[in-house]
């Protein structure tokens, strides 16, 4: 007999085998740190279902214990069916038992390689959730074939060392993009992922619009609505481009296009620019979508405070530009200590700029002000 423990999350209780530590080697994978990810997923999918105004079909392609898919069935209204799939036979056994124990009759367990399942279910799903170990890159194209036009793709990536630029080669291999290790590298990571997904979907004349995304703990998570049509796909690909960053003065610029002229020298200080891309330069958040997620966030979830703070920051930053400044990094260049971040933001507002915090970094400021203005404001607050 295998020793089991019961996990209580959202409105469900699931059993999993006892494990020593969270690891891909656990008999059935369950990570308590991902509770926030699942809580946010439930409301993101609820917003999507509301927008559709009809019952939706969901594929949880990497189901583990089944907790995510079972929560989708139990906590989202308007769900026609959920397929919870996993390649690990023991995970599927536990999923079946967890489905039975939670009395969710519209959930079915499947034991298949995710790519094969998704290819077999061409155009069948409204929502596909990709939550593998490490990179989602080998599964995105299959998701493109299985999603209906008007569908929603949800992707988790835990290979942040590649996407955020600690290691360049794996990012080039997996995402066909050069990462950019900067103080806003996690946002760049989300943009590389969004860009890779849009290029992959484009092969099928499908385009993607990111409605919500976040960088939390060790992972990146993104939600994209899918549309269809050659012309719209061509137009959408115009949102791809590059970011050039000056490590010396912290000036940065976005350069749209797949083969644009990219300057090598900083126009402000003549320093050598570092370049990342191709990546997604347009919005990573839809403010209306995030606002509705805020409305729907249930006070009963265990992660309520964290989820609320994250969504509030995401809402604010949804109106901002593609990168952010790190207050401490700017102060380091200025060789001064940091004033309160709220004072800097207030001054930026007074001068007529957009300025907000970002969920990615407590010391991050999203603003359309040039770096010289931020520096002047910091020095005036110090003086
Ligand atoms: C990160 S876990 C999923 C966790 C789950 N979504 C949750 O929220 O608890 C990844 C799962 O994918 C399964 N897996 C790995 N490769 C797979 C493949 N090619 N096809 C289907 N499942 C796979 C693993 O057995 C593991 O259970
Ligand atoms: Zn410069």
Please describe what this structure looks like:
This protein is 38% helix and 24% strand. The protein is of the alpha/beta class and 383 residues long. It has 2 domains: 4-309, 3-Layer(aba) Sandwich (Rossmann fold), CATH 3.40.50; 323-382, Phenylalanyl-tRNA Synthetase, Chain B, domain 1, CATH 3.30.56.70. Strand 6 (125-130), helix 5 and strand 7 form a beta-alpha-beta unit. Helix 1 (35-52) packs across helix 10 (287-296), helix 4 packs parallel to helix 5 and helix 10 packs antiparallel against helix 11. The longest helix is centred in the first third of the chain and has 18 residues, at 35-52. The mean pLDDT is 97. The structure holds S-adenosylmethionine (SAM) and zinc ion. Zinc ion is lined by residues 246, 248-249, 251, 266, 268-269, 271. The site of S-adenosylmethionine has 20 residues, from helix 2.
């Amino acid at each position: 007999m295998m020793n089991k423990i019961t996990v209580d999350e959202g409105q469900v209780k699931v059993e999993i085998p006892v494990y020593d530590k969270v690891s891909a080697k656990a008999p059935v994978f369950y990570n308590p740190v991902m509770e926030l990810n699942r809580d946010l997923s439930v409301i993101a999918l609820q917003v999507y279902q509301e927008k559709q105004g009809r019952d939706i079909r969901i594929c949880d392609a990497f189901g583990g214990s089944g907790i995510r898919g079972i929560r989708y069935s139990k906590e989202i209204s308007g769900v026609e069916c959920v397929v919870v799939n996993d390649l690990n036979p023991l995970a599927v056994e536990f999923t079946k038992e967890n489905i039975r124990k939670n009395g969710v009759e519209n959930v079915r367990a499947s034991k298949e390689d995710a790519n094969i399942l998704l290819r077999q279910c061409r155009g069948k799903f409204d929502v596909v959730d990709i939550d593998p170990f490490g990179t989602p890159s080998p599964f995105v194209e299959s998701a493109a074939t299985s999603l209906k036009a008007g569908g929603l793709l949800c992707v988790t990536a835990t290979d942040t060392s590649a996407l955020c630029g600690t290691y360049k080669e794996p990012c080039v291999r997996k995402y066909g993009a050069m990462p950019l290790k900067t103080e806003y590298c996690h946002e760049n990571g989300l943009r590389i992922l969004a860009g890779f997904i849009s290029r992959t979907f484009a092969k099928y004349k499908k385009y993607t619009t990111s409605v919500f995304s976040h960088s939390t703990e060790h992972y990146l998570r993104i939600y994209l609505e899918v549309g269809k049509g050659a012309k719209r796909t061509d137009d959408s690909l115009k949102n791809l481009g590059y970011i050039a960053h000056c490590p010396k003065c912290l000036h940065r610029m976005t350069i749209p296009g797949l083969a644009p002229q990219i300057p090598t020298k900083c126009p402000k200080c003549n320093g050598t620019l570092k370049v990342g891309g191709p990546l997604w330069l347009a919005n990573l958040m839809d403010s209306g979508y995030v606002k509705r997620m805020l409305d729907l966030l249930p006070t009963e979830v265990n992660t309520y405070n964290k989820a609320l703070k994250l969504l509030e920051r995401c809402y604010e930053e949804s109106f901002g530009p593609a990168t952010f400044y790190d207050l401490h990094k700017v102060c380091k260049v200025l060789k001064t200590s940091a004033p309160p971040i709220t004072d800097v933001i207030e001054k930026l507002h007074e001068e007529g700029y957009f300025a907000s915090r970002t969920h990615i970094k407590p010391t991050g400021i999203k603003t359309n002000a040039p770096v010289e203005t931020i520096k002047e404001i910091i020095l005036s607050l110090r003086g």
